[in-house]
Amino acid sequence: MSYVKRDGVNIYYETYGQGFPLVFLHPFSTNGYIWYFQTFTFARTNQCVVIDERGHGRSDKPQQGYAIKEMAADVIAVLDELKLNRAIFVGNSIGGMIVMQLNLDYPDRVACNVIVSSGTNLAAGMPAEAMAAFQQAPEAAFGALMEGAISAKTKRERPEILDLMKAQFSVEGNFPRYVFNAASADPGGVFNWNITSRLKEIRKPTLVLAGEEDQGTPVAVNKLLADNIPGAQLRVVKDVGHFYQLEKPAEFNAAVLAFLEEVVARKAA
Predict the structure, then answer these.
(1) pLDDT, tens digit, for every residue of 107-149?
(2) Nearest-10 Cα torsion for 54, 169, 224, 239
(3) Can you tell me the distance from the alpha carbon of 119 to that of 99, in angstroms, rounded to the nearest whole number?
(4) Are 50 and 24 in contact (CB under 8 A)?
(5) 265 vs 269: CA distance, rounded Å
């Protein structure tokens, strides 16, 4: 098992394959397992680095310290440990936020970005009663959130995905309630993190993928990213919610591969 320690916090990572590095950053409350359908497919041509973010999975879970800037610095610590100068970053939800923060804080380490169902300043669109529900009955509130974050087709044809997402939240060893509370309260954490005015500073090639049925980070939230990141592409995906890489893995992989090939072709032109 591979860990890097940064400021006393152990960050777990796995690496597979050889070639130009491709780093996968998972959504809130999950862990690196969510990239199962991508890791080995892309490891045939790239070095795939899969990280469990602080507070999740096999990484340490401190009582505080869940600002997106902190989580971005953890990723750089992993890259430094592996002696990787630059990488392609793929991030879903909070993972996408970390990708954007990496572009702001460490632009020379970024080759290009794939941002999946993410956003910024999420608290602005969240009713106060929704956050109160998470405090009073977290599993029920999160379960309702997941119902709206997964497409109708996925729930009908692949119900195991909804069950998986609910289970990852409910297992304390994967994602303790105090981590949710600390991240939610952090001024720079998942809900309060706001880089709207700085999106224009992200200059690396960027693909934004949004599920048409995602009620967690709706299309409009992702469109805001694409409209303000110079040159960014937005693709809205039918019959998909918040987890494109799980709901339609083969299609997701093809979309990422096509984008990477386009970036390479553009540089060669």
Answers:
(1) 999 999 999 999 999 988 776 676 676 677 777 777 888 999 9
(2) 130
(3) 11
(4) yes
(5) 6
